[in-house]
Task: structure prediction
Amino acid sequence: MTEPAPSWLDELPAHLQALDAAHLLRRRRVVRPLGDGYLSVDGERLLAFCSNDYLGLAGDPALVAAACEGARHYGVGSGASPMVSGHSVANAALEEELARFVGLPRALYFYAGFATNASVIPALVGEGDALFSDALNHACLIDGARLSKATIHRFAHADLDQLGRQLAACTARRKLVLSDAVFSMDGDVADVPRLLHLCEQHDALLLIDDAHGFGVLGPQGRGTLAQFGLVGATASRRVLYMATLGKALGVAGAFVAGDATLVEWLLQKTRSYTFATAAPALLAEALRASLRCVERDDWRRARLAELVGVLRQRLHAGLAGTGWRLLDSPTPIQPLIVGDNATALALMDGLRQHGLWVPAIRPPTVPAGTARLRIALSAAHSVADVERLADTILALSPRPSQNPQEPTA
Ligand SMILES: *Cc1c(COP(=O)(O)O)cnc(C)c1O
Result:
């Protein structure tokens, strides 16, 4: 009897232990929504500031009713790829409504956002082409870039001077610039007009991922492009707009929108579209109901803006001199930078003991030394909820140092 050769599979327990020892082992909590921004988290009732359900639509009765009605009508599953028999009349109607809503010629509805970016990029560029990517872009843009085999030029976050130099120096025929519209861990908004201007100068296409701006920014929540007036008659064929439908829209999925020929090309060439089962029609019906709420309910965005103001005002004054700082974000993503991982985890834990749930975000999701609490506000929160959060953070914050050179910004 010979010993079996050692397998790489036998190494996995040690790798898991190493992650655990480095405080990098991720654990899921089992949650259940309790309404009004509360979650049951492993059985404990907590006021949650960690959801991207910015407009409070995920549990809205109008959406639930539309999903139930959709299930009665169409059943639960779509049965096949949209290229075969999965493109239901509900999904087709949703695409038209999405295109009209964002003010672009045509839209294509995908079952998931990650897969959308991961496969749209390889449909547009390949070996010998060039990609330009903001250093803080979402993981799915990065994965799509790698899958494409195009040469990747990374530019420092929001450093459009550097991007301009990279574009000018590039001789590739096809150039694609990738950027989040609202950066998911910092909450800041990309300078889309300037990005577009650079793309026009250098014959590049701009892919904008508006996962966190769609529904929240722009008139009636039409998104970041609409906020900058780059839609309708002033839309550019150089912009491919992408947004997800599981955040402010409260459901699931994603879409791309832009020039009709460009979208037709993606319909032909995007592998996660062709070779994946279509999103169920009941989701399309829930999304159509959600779009009506997003368009009509300006009060949801007004409430969010009010909550952002309340949080920023309380924390800004209270944190002066503590070494903790709120990033300068106009969106419902309000990151509180505390620095090291242990502090971020201790703060998360302290808040949890006070019935509040705010996720600590550590490297590698964010750069080393910028561990933070990612506070996400929602129209489901009240002013009193946000005041409670701010006051609890202040009570747990370090005492202001007497050092007069502390930054005040
Ligand atoms: C969440 C997110 C995605 C992924 O979308 P899913 O529909 O959740 O797969 C893509 N891009 C950004 C910027 C995101 O925040």
About this structure: The chain has two domains: 22-55+298-396, 61-296.
